[in-house]
Structure formats: structure tokens, C-alpha cells
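Supplementary Note 2. Why include the ligand at all?

Several targets in our set were suspected to adopt different conformations when bound, so apo predictions alone were not considered sufficient. For every target with a known small-molecule partner we therefore ran a joint prediction. The input for S-adenosylmethionine is given below.
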Amino acid sequence: MPEVVDLRPHFLCFDDVLSYVAADGLLDWTKLFGNANPVELDVGCGRGMFLFNASTTQPERNFLGVELDFTEGRRGAKRLVKRNQPNARVIGGDANYLLDRLIRPASLSAVHVYFPDPWWKRKHRRRRLFTDLFADRVARVLVPGGSLHMWTDVADYFEIVEALLEHHPLFKSLPTPAEHVAANDLDYQTSFERTRRVAGLPIHRGLWQRVGEPDAIHE
Ligand SMILES: C[S@@+](CC[C@H](N)C(=O)[O-])C[C@H]1O[C@@H](n2cnc3c(N)ncnc32)[C@H](O)[C@@H]1O
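The joint prediction is reproduced in C-alpha cell form.
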């Protein structure tokens, strides 16, 4: 059996996360990152291109990825370990559990959702991550003024998310970020953006701001 390399603290599973919670059982960012800088969450971070690039170019911010697929999540974390990157971590597990059980309300400055699985077949659509319940989860953990980024190449998925957030009282749409010409192979937001753009597919980019009070309840 190949040896499983210990990637802690860059890759953590839910059991490991218990070392970084406060007395109320919710994650304490100062314990996890060793500073009180703003924290951004990348949901379904895959092999971590966004985490790696963003944590390198923005050392004054912290970046947390959550990834269901441990092989992909660990692959991303390996690059962080090599650099001993202090401001990026990956948690292996379900983002919905993390959002519901471990993240303090109004404690994130941004949530990023890049290329969530499309679940093409109609009978599988209900497995899609981004639902009205997911929007509520994100609204709960974002600070007022915080941002939500959602990009995809799946037009119908994007339309649904746009409509859902347009009717959500705690989100306001902001101007969409423009596409830039990639300077090199790593100059993309994520690995999926790279494969989709190289294949010539259009990318839908959405940006929303969390509005309202921190504890506003969506009815
Ligand atoms: C299509 S990939 C995109 C990966 C990456 N964001 C990118 O753009 O390259 C979607 C990722 O979301 C992950 N994922 C799906 N549902 C998830 C969940 N509930 N919690 C955490 N990750 C999830 C999948 O394992 C997969 O790696």
C-alpha cells in the first residue's frame, strides 16, 4: 500500500478541523490561519489553482478550499505544502456540512463557486450544488458587503443561479468581471476555466454582493 502523506495543516478532514474550533464548536479563523485577516472560501476547489494563485498574490487575505473529492483536494494541498503557504488551507468533505455546522455566521468576506458539477441529465439535476438553500447558506456566512462569485460554462445553470439570486433579498448583482487574455498556462481562475476556454466555450461570470443585516433571515 502506498504511504498516505500527512498534509496537515494544509489538508484537513473534518476530524482534524476540531483542533481549530472555538468553545462553541465553530471554526476560529485565527486558530486556523494564525491571523485575523479576511477569509475567503472556495467551494469545490478541485485541484486548487484558484487557492494557490489567490493566496500567492493576496498574502493579506486567507483562502480556504473545501473539496468532496479527497484525491483532488490533496493534490491542491500538496502544492501549498511545497510552498509552505501560510494563508491557504483545504478541507476535505461536503461544503454543505462545512457551511451549516462549522462556519460562523457573517465570518467570510467572499465565497467562490467555480464550475460546479453540471449534472447534465434531467433526472440528476437535483444533485446540483447551487440551489436556493445553498444561496441561504452562503448569505448566512458572508459579512454584509461580502461577495459571491459564481462562474460556469453551463448556460442553463447560470441562468437559474442568476434568477435565484435576483429574487434573493440578501444579494445584489454587481457588474460582471471581464475576461482577460491569459498570459500563460496558469493565468486562469481555475483548472476548469482553462480547459473550457481552451475548448473555445463561453464562460458565464457572476458577481453578487451580500446586502442587509448580518443576521437577516430570508423568508
Ligand atoms: C467541475 S469541478 C470544478 C473544480 C474547480 N472549482 C475548478 O473550477 O477547476 C467541481 C468540483 O466540486 C466538487 N464538489 C461537488 N460537490 C461538492 C460538495 N458538496 N462539497 C465540496 N465539493 C464538492 C467536486 O468534487 C469537483 O471537484
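The first strand starts at residue 11 and ends at 13. The domain at 11-210 is CATH 3.40.50.150 (Rossmann fold). Comparable summaries for the other entries are listed in the accompanying table.
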